[in-house]
Amino acid sequence: MQFTAQQIADLLQGQIEGDGTVLISKLAKIEEGETGSISFLANPLYTPYLYKTKASLVIINKDFELTAPVTTTLLRVESAANAFTQLLEMYNQVKLNKKGISKMAFIAESATVGKDIYAGEFAFIGENAKIGNNVKIYPQAYVGDNVVIGDNTTLFAGVKIYSETVIGKNCIIHSGTVIGSDGFRFNPENDHKKVPQIGNVIIEDDVEIGANCAIDRATLGSTILRKGVKFDNLIHIAHNVEVGENTYFAAHGVVAGSTKIGKNCMFSGQVGIVGHLQVADNTIITAQSGISKSITKPGETYMGSPAFDANKYRKAFIHFRNLDALVQRVNALERQLKEADVNRKS
């Protein structure tokens, strides 16, 4: 698809400087721009590229002042970063706007599907499943019996949704993710027999789950991801965990069973949280931290393993980093004391 610079300006409510008839057919980073591409400048570190880019159109802030001539057409807007994000969203909508049910998809007769759904090759929808409007189920995705999926939700290729799972509206679940697999529970007092997992998983509206995540079903009741939760790739959520609204997890996060996490929390990569804890709202956990006890005060930042207050951790780490020098000083002092003691006795 091609658009003129002026058409894009009208869409973004911006002002053209230069040739408004130039044709745009792709998006690019400013340092990699080429003829026919559109880019943007928001970070001052990339300003030098504006004067040598080959992109046909560059979005800049309305108040940006040029210090040299440019060869590209400029599009001035209130926020270049926001405007380019808007373009990316539109591009994705066009690219991912798939509809229709493949002849090689399987939909059980007892299942109900909404309007304008997409079901790709070898997609499977089980008995009594309820699929909302405009849902997209990519090839080789599996939707088990009695699953409910809300409007405008997307399951990318290879997603597996076990039975009884409930997924809300406007969710995105990326390839390889498994939702509703059994929780990890065995009974060592009964010959290590598996404890049946008969609960489910509930995912509320506007949740995004990255690739290759695993969300376990509850033993009883539900494992719950509240509205607006965002997961990176490779996250594991165990049985009966509850994650509060708008909480973010970076890659490799692990939460053990029955832990309750508050709203608006942010967890960096490789954070581990043991089971049966409470984590207060607005908690921030830095990368590779291990949470071994409940966090009850909202808005705190934790670091380390086991994790504690980040400011205290940084101070403690200074001492740890100097530990070898301290040991050498202590050894030297002990030698001096021994020598002084020998001299005194002699």
UniProtKB/TrEMBL annotation:
PROSITE patterns attached to this UniProt entry: HEXAPEP_TRANSFERASES
Transmembrane feature ranges: none
Keyword Endoplasmic reticulum (UniProt): no
Family matches, as Pfam families: Hexapep, Hexapep_2, LpxD
Domain of life per record: Bacteria
First-level EC class: transferase
Active-site residues annotated for this sequence: 239
Keywords: Acyltransferase, Lipid A biosynthesis, Lipid biosynthesis, Lipid metabolism, Repeat, Transferase
EC identifiers of the protein: 2.3.1.191
Pathways per UniProt: Bacterial outer membrane biogenesis; LPS lipid A biosynthesis
GO cellular component: membrane
MF-aspect GO terms: N-acyltransferase activity; UDP-3-O-[(3R)-3-hydroxyacyl]-glucosamine N-acyltransferase activity
Positions of the UDP-3-O-[3-hydroxymyristoyl] glucosamine N-acyltransferase non-repeat region domain: 22-89
GO BP: lipid A biosynthetic process
Catalyses which reaction(s): a UDP-3-O-[(3R)-3-hydroxyacyl]-alpha-D-glucosamine + a (3R)-hydroxyacyl-[ACP] = a UDP-2-N,3-O-bis[(3R)-3-hydroxyacyl]-alpha-D-glucosamine + holo-[ACP] + H(+)
InterPro entries per record: Hexapep, Hexapep_transf_CS, LpxD, Trimer_LpxA-like_sf, UDP_GlcNAc_AcTrfase_non-rep
SUPFAM superfamilies for the chain: Trimeric LpxA-like enzymes
UniProt cross-references to Gene3D superfamilies, sorted A to Z: Hexapeptide repeat proteins, MurE/MurF, N-terminal domain
Subunit structure: Homotrimer.
Family, similarity comment: Belongs to the transferase hexapeptide repeat family. LpxD subfamily.
Stated role: Catalyzes the N-acylation of UDP-3-O-acylglucosamine using 3-hydroxyacyl-ACP as the acyl donor. Is involved in the biosynthesis of lipid A, a phosphorylated glycolipid that anchors the lipopolysaccharide to the outer membrane of the cell.
Matching PANTHER family: UDP-3-O-ACYLGLUCOSAMINE N-ACYLTRANSFERASE (PTHR43378), UDP-3-O-ACYLGLUCOSAMINE N-ACYLTRANSFERASE 1, MITOCHONDRIAL-RELATED (PTHR43378:SF2)
Protein name: UDP-3-O-acylglucosamine N-acyltransferase
Lineage per the UniProt record: Bacteria, Pseudomonadati, Bacteroidota, Chitinophagia, Chitinophagales
